[in-house]
Design a protein that fits this description.
single chain; alpha/beta; eight-stranded mixed β-sheet; globular; binds adenosine-5'-diphosphate; binds aspartic acid; binds magnesium ion
Length: 410
């Protein structure tokens, strides 16, 4: 008998009817002889609603009590799904993260899973029960409730699948797989049969929110067979796999984008050793993560220094830069929140030149100005004006012929 861990996201459990559909699917799979552990998210919009309540009390709500609040969303769905299963004659047990000892560190609102005690779940499975576990939450060493960051139910599912050595972890969502780019933005986007862990990790890190980044990291590290598929229709979905098992020959697997960054520039700083450190040191001290960095070639012994941060950190970063600017005697500090980052991703880039030039040529043809560029072995990212985001993504999708099945695909 095989063991499956199934995860249903917010939209898939968004109404009681949909929860009934999930129960039907669990029953079907059990009928086919699978043992099933189900991880559920909060009903769609619920986590945002709870966040809104918290912010009405405390503008910058965060930390321990926010986790106590946010974790309630998932507690509702585990109970409702277990009831729906029981109503169908399927023995079921629901558990919060704490009840099955999903132990995390104490980094509230973005905790990392350290260990899972699979004891209870295994004895339920042995007794023929379906097990329903709340996603997105855990408990720290002190017994405080923690949450895993937005989208964290994916990570709960993969971590459980790893702990239980499940045969497959299936992420059921509102699209029928991983696409070449967000299908909500580009109609021509195509579902991928397979994508490598490495590509999926880049796509997720660069803004494709279909899977939480940490869930992909986890799956890659523990070699968890992972599949993304639709909770509304039947189909094979997309298998996340190792490079050796990849059959597609495409150079570019997909295009990711992100509107959550802001750009800061400090102009006219001395062009001398230690300047990057003088600027980025205080930014790091303020706990702000920097993504892309560009330093101009200096003229008249001064230079300009530009970098991007998450939009949430923009104001804090501007404050820090203001202080740095007076210490360094800079000419000016400027910022822009109307930017977007577009990235093309593919392991095929390792062995093929010319992807970057095709990317730049395509953007030039659309008269889209590139503000910043960064590359790694398997991705090229550019920062452009936010208003060109959709145009840029569509043009690149076309230029790399992503709507067409690549040769070699089975
Ligand atoms: P869930 O609530 O099930 O966790 P999410 O909203 O977190 O669902 O993730 C699914 C969404 O991810 C899709 O509706 C889609 O708009 C978005 N998405 C972004 N990039 C991609 C991509 N490359 N392939 C598929 N979906 C994508
Ligand atoms: N409910 C949480 C969120 O909205 C976790 C999840 O859905 O994965 O982010
Ligand atoms: Mg999600």
């Amino acid at each position: 008998m095989s063991l499956l861990v199934l995860k249903f996201g917010g939209t898939s459990v968004g109404t009681t009817d949909r929860i009934q559909n999930v129960a039907d699917r669990v029953l079907r799979l059990r009928g086919e002889g699978h043992a099933v552990v189900v991880v559920v998210s909060a009903m769609s919009g619920e986590t945002d609603r709870l966040l809104g309540l918290a912010r009405a009390i405390q503008t910058r709500a965060e930390g321990r009590e926010l986790d106590v609040l946010l974790s309630t969303g998932e507690q509702v769905t585990i109970a409702l799904l277990s009831m729906a299963l029981e109503a169908r004659g399927c023995p079921a047990r629901s558990y919060t993260g704490g009840q099955v000892s999903i132990v995390t560190d104490s980094a509230h609102n973005k905790a990392r899973i350290r260990s899972i005690d699979d004891h209870r779940i295994r004895s339920d499975l042995n007794a023929g029960r379906a097990v329903v576990v709340a996603g997105f939450q855990g408990i720290d060493e002190e017994g405080a409730i923690t949450t895993l960051g937005r989208g964290g139910s994916d990570t709960t599912a993969v971590a459980l699948a790893a702990a239980l050595k499940a045969d497959e972890c299936r992420i059921y969502t509102d699209v029928d797989g991983v696409y070449t780019t967000d299908p909500r933005v580009v109609k021509q986007a195509r579902r991928l049969e397979r994508i490598t862990f490495e590509e999926m990790l880049e796509m997720a890190s660069l803004g494709s929110k279909v899977l939480q980044i940490r869930s992909v990291e986890f799956a890659g590290k523990y070699n968890v067979p992972l599949r993304v598929l639709s909770s509304f229709e039947e189909g094979p979905g997309t298998l996340i796999t190792t490079e050796e098992e990849r059959v597609e020959q495409a150079l570019v697997a997909g295009i990711a984008f992100n509107q959550n960054e802001a750009q800061l520039t400090i102009q006219g700083v001395p062009d001398q050793p230690g300047v990057a450190y003088a600027i980025l040191g205080p930014i790091a001290d303020a706990n702000i993560e920097v993504d892309m960095i560009v330093q101009n070639i200096g003229a008249d012994n001064t230079t300009d220094f530009t970098f991007t941060v998450n939009k949430n950190d923009y104001e804090k970063a501007m404050e820090v830069l203001g202080r740095v600017s007076s210490t360094l005697g800079a000419r000016k500090v400027a910022g822009d929140t109307q930017i977007a980052k577009i990235s093309v991703v593919g392991v095929g880039m390792r062995s093929h030149a010319g992807i970057a030039s095709r990317m730049f040529e395509t953007l030039a043809r659309e008269s889209i100005n590139i503000r910043m560029i960064s590359t790694s072995e398997i991705k090229i990212s550019v920062v452009v004006d936010e208003k060109y985001l959709e145009l840029g993504v569509r043009a690149l999708h076309d230029a790399f012929e992503l709507e067409r099945e690549p040769a070699g695909q089975s």
